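Let's study today's protein:

:::
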Amino acid sequence: MGLSIPIDPFWGAIITLALSDSAFTAEIYRAGIQSIARGQREAAETIGLTPAQTMRYVILPQAIRRILPPLANQFIYIVKMSAFASVIGMQELTRRANELVVTEYRPLEIYTLLIFEYLILVLIISAGVRWLERRMRADER
C-alpha cells in the first residue's frame, strides 16, 4: 500500500523543479568560485582581509562574471522544463495549449502562439542577462 500525500499541483511543480535544478545551480556556483585563481585568495589574506571579506570583495565579484552565462542557461532550461509540470496537472502554457487544441481543433495556430510565448520568455531572460553582463563590464572600468 503506497503513501498518499495530497499536494496542490502548483506546489508539486515548484518542489519538483527546485529539487531537480538545485544541484545544477549549486555546481555552477561551486565551479565559478573554484575557478578564481588561488593567488587572489592569498593576496586578500596578505592585506589582512577576513575569509568573509575575501569572499565578498575579491572572490565573488570575479566569480559572478563567470557564473552568469551558465546560470542564465540553467534559468532558460527551467523555463522550458516547466512544460513538464503539465504532467501533474498544473495549468501552465503547454497544458493549456493542449486543452485548447482538443476543444478548438486549431493546432497550427495554437502551437505557433505557444512557440512565440516561449520564445518571448527566453528572449526576455537572455536580454536581461546581456544587460547584467554589460553592466558588470562597465563596473570593471
The CA atoms of residues 86 and 128 lie 27 Å apart. The domain at 9-140 is CATH 1.10.3720.10 (MetI-like fold).
